[in-house]
Amino acid sequence: KAAKPGEPADAVWASPWGPGRPGWHIECSAMSRRYLGAEFDIHGGGLDLRFPHHENELAQSTAAGDAFARYWMHNGLVTVGDQKMSKSLGNFLLAHDVLSRHDPLVVRYALAAAHYRSSLEISPTTFAEAETALGRIRTFQERAARVLGTATPLVAADLPESFAAALDDDLGVPQALAVVHETVRAGNAALDAGDTDAAARALVEVGRMTGLLGLNPEDPQWRSIADDDQTRALDALVQELIGQRAQARADKDWAAADRIRDAIAAAGIVLEDSVHGTHWSLDGR
């Protein structure tokens, strides 16, 4: 790169094109060689760096005799209001601020739901949609666990072929997540039909797929002791109300049964009656 007046003299040397100094392209080639060696597997970076930055890195390193990177992966940009999120524009979000407003697993799901080469627009809708999608997974897992209990052994299940194929195709996480939700729907249908074997298989598959993606709501790293205590307390309270409603229905006191159900619904809790009893979930989950 052409040297500018006033830059350190010991970083400038003569060239046929005039005084020059190291630029940011050679800086990255030098760091790669220093910490990763002359040849390494994957070089990542934003799509906006593909040219000229990465092409210059490759040209420089190859000219120096290095094999350099075997694979290049260019990620899409994170945008806010259709503008690239950047420090220079002042429209960036700090991880601490995002995590103070959203569950960490919701944030992780939102980031994973877009293909790595696609742009990702950050907005309130982004996290709301992720929370809803995660809620479907969580609700199925909780429902299946209640119905199956510990009496029904969980069957061994391989990862669905379509899930593995999605990840094998340029790390297609969005397509892999679609397979997760297809399995959730199949699992719920199996529970509705009383097919415990199919439901157990779906439960295991969902756990394995979301576990591989680091998105399993049942993983201990996403569940705090306080969350578990609150869930148990809420479950005990709702089960008490479900019992009161069941008794009112048995007594044919339909007005009382409806009042209990309406009170539960007003608290944001949905009841689901099935042949296996009444189960609850949070509205919108």
3D architecture notes:
It is a single chain. The protein folds into three domains: 9-75, no CATH class; 80-221, Isoleucyl-tRNA Synthetase, Domain 1 (Orthogonal Bundle), CATH 1.10.730.10; 224-282, no CATH class. It contains ten helices and seven strands. The protein has helices at residues 24-36, 50-63, 95-101, 104-112, 124-148, 161-168, 173-193, 196-212, 225-250, 254-266; strands at 39-46, 68-75, 78-80, 83-84, 120-121, 269-274, 277-282. The strands form three sheets. A three-stranded mixed β-sheet has the order 4-3-5, with no helix packed on it. The chain has a two-stranded parallel sheet with strand order 1-2. A two-stranded antiparallel ribbon has the order 6-7. α6 packs antiparallel against α7 (173-193). The mean pLDDT is 90.
Which features would summarize this protein structure in a list?
single chain, alpha/beta, Isoleucyl-tRNA Synthetase, Domain 1, 3 domains, 10 helices, 54% helix
Please write out the topology.
Layout: H1 24-36, E1 39-46, H2 50-63, E2 68-75, E3 78-80, E4 83-84, H3 95-101, H4 104-112, E5 120-121, H5 124-148, H6 161-168, H7 173-193, H8 196-212, H9 225-250, H10 254-266, E6 269-274, E7 277-282
Parallel strand pairs: 1-2, 3-5
Antiparallel strand pairs: 3-4, 6-7
Helix pairs in contact: 1-2, 4-5, 5-7, 5-8, 6-7, 7-8, 9-10
Structural class: alpha/beta
By oligomeric state, this entry counts as: single chain
CATH architecture of the largest domain: Orthogonal Bundle
Number of helices: 10
Domain tally: 3
According to CATH, what is the class of the largest domain? Mainly Alpha
Radius of gyration: 27 Å
H and E string: HEHEEEHHEHHHHHHEE
